[in-house]
Amino acid sequence: MRKTKTLLTYLFSSLVLILLLAACSSDSTSTGDKNESGGKKDEKIVVGFSQIGAESGWRTAETESIKETLGNDSRFELKFSDAQQKQENQIKALRSFIAQKVDIIALAPVVESGWETVLQEAKDAKIPVILLDRGIDVKDESLYTSFIGSDFILEGENAAKELINLMGKDSKVNIVELQGTVGASAANDRMEGFANVIKENPNYNIIKSQSGDFTRAKGKEVMEAFLKSDGENIDAVYAHNDDMALGAIQAIEEYGLKPGEDIKVVSVDGIKAIFEAVAAGKANIIVECNPLLGPQLAQAALDLQAGKEIERWIKTEETVFVGKEAAESALPSRKY
Ligand code: AHR
Hints:
Blueprint: H1 2-30, E1 45-51, H2 57-71, E2 76-82, H3 87-99, E3 104-107, H4 116-124, E4 129-132, E5 146-149, H5 152-167, E6 173-179, H6 185-198, E7 204-211, H7 216-230, E8 236-239, H8 242-255, E9 264-269, H9 272-279, E10 285-288, H10 294-305, E11 313-315, E12 320-322, H11 323-330
Bound molecules: alpha-L-arabinofuranose (AHR).
The site of alpha-L-arabinofuranose has 12 residues, from α2 and β9.
């Protein structure tokens, strides 16, 4: 009798336990992480972004735009890697993104060449690659899906046209050029575009051209060397970005000349500091290059994930600002 009672108690407790477990498991299904289409509700698009570094105000603005757009959108997970200006670090970052099986790779390539092998690895892993702001030089164009960014050749052409407008086509003008990072598409194309227009006008001469690596410190250093060798002979400086132009302005002042007057300053990018310099009469022409690429990258990633075709070149909207008034009226609304 005692044995039967123990057995009944055991059976009853087991039944209660089974019922409790069943209740718990049905509970987790009802609040579970599945959406209506059966996919995981919290499934995000994982984007691995390999950034060049932080050499300029422009690049910092680009990084912020991407972190802000993708970081504040629950549909994305962003994996960010800063390459400190080194292509080898970018290649490592890409391999790590491939190993982590990200959905999309975004790459701002420091230089144009040397990408074939790693991009082939991404292609083999079926991970689409979107190039951001700078282009690459590859034979097989299928190694990347799209390029989001500016027309750097056009920027160089606009810089030259505006300089000729400002100084007059009949004036004799000696120009020194501060190039960006050697091998970067932004440097190669801005140089090419500028030269295309300048060579049409025999009164305009590029007397010196050297890399200032897109940084303020290097831009200043190279401008100091230009001033030392050619001093009073320089009429204008064309800088491939604002940071180098700001370094050049400092060098010109320290040399005892007036930037914007004695030596005209033409720059590309459009960060706030160059608008302030133009408003103060220390620089003259800004060719805008838009770094706020976060929204375009997010849209491209969503489209790709939805299986849509995206444009091969997603261009950004840009303009040119010449002179004090233009800079002053644009300054309050500048976003970077
Ligand atoms: O690739 C774009 C260029 O890179 C920007 O003009 C420059 O400021 C940056 O470092």
